[in-house]
Amino acid sequence: MNFIALAAAPGIAICLFIFYRDKYNREPLLNLILTFILGVLAAIPAVIIETVFHTPSTNIASVAIQAFLVVALTEELCKFAVLRWYSFPRKSFDEPLDGIVYGLVASMGFATIENILYVTKYAEMGMGYQVAIMRMFLSVPAHATFGILMGYYVGKAKFDPVNRKGLIFKGIFWATFMHGVYDFFLFLQGHPDVKPYISDSALFIGAVVSFIIGVRLSMKHIRTHQKISQTMHHPTEHFNIRIATEKDIPTIRQLAHDSWPAAYGAILSPEQLDYMLNKIYNREALATDMQKPTTYTLIYDGLDVVGFAAFGKITDDTAKLHKIYFLPQMQGKGFGKLTINKITASLKKSGVNFLQLNVNRNNPAKLFYEKVGFTVIREEDIDIGNGYFMNDYVMELDLSKV
């Protein structure tokens, strides 16, 4: 019983690890348990197929065939069957990270029963603890990396029907390839054509190094999909804002060119849009603006800059929000409200009582400003040259009410 517990512990621990990494939109526990159990059952057809197609390793080529095609491909296809036909159709599979979660759990079900069989077998020879410890740090985590690699692509495939077949193929290919490389060097142990010192070196250089590469790729994929999950479910968790300087002008210009078409494309002609961008956001204009009592800020989501804002006093008790723009994909996720709250808190400390802004009279952003407390105080038509006008509402926020 001690050997069974020791053999089962790594797989369960890794499942708990990925469960807690999926912190923004966790999967139903029952679905994960069933995926794990199906992963255990997937070992049955894998054992049968491997037994039927097992051939003696007479040369290095036969070792490769055994490692890549008979063992790796068979086991990864059996695990893929669980992922594709049980987990994939679940309603709870609602974000790319779920591919990694379900892929790893299915792999851990498979690896756990395999580990139990190996450890109990060697326990009869008095080597149970040695094998359990070795597999705890190599074989079971290796299966985890194969499941993560496959799950990464299957998770992408779920939400990309156009490229679904290609992404699924990539998932199976990379999981099988890494699995095959790992097994190939393991199978060289004791092969008559390979001297022991060569096989030992190959085991370390091949199996261990491929395992390390697999782990690094897996962690990279987890972070990538976790970022997507955070963006979907808690987009403002890593909100941050800092004051910009002239060194940030290229970033501000790029943000303006990326955000203005979405903000004004339906309101302004392409000619006016280009004219205003070139007039307001050329390097010299921004540098001059920063020398005035205007504070520019950059808004971040973690390490990624997603927008900018500019504000400054226009009288002793009134300030103006001159600019606030975000990348199109970040709009509607709460960054605008957080930015305004941050700016108003700073202005209140400096004795400002009112915050004003201009918004185009046809811009739906007016509704957003009304929701955060701004009201229209007048209309304003501003001649910006070249025959163009800005037809705006002037809106005001009473800071004593926020």
Beta strands, count: 7
The overall pLDDT average reads: 85
Spatial order of strands in the largest sheet: 1-2-3-4-5-7-6
State the distance separating the first and last CA atoms: 63 Å
Looking at the chains present, what oligomeric state does this protein adopt?
A: single chain
Question: What is the alpha-carbon Rg in Å?
Answer: 30 Å
Number of H- or I-type helical stretches: 14
Question: What is the count of distinct domains?
Answer: 2
Order of helices and strands: HHHHHHHHHEHHHEEEHEHEE
Question: Sheet bearing the most strands, described?
Answer: 7 strands, mixed
Approximate helicity band: 55-70%
Can you tell me the residue ranges where pLDDT is under 50 for at least 5 consecutive residues? none
What is the general shape? elongated
**What is the SS-derived class?**
alpha+beta
Fraction in beta strands: 5-15%
Key phrases:
7 strands; elongated; Aminopeptidase; seven-stranded mixed beta sheet; 14 helices; alpha+beta; 2 domains; 402 residues
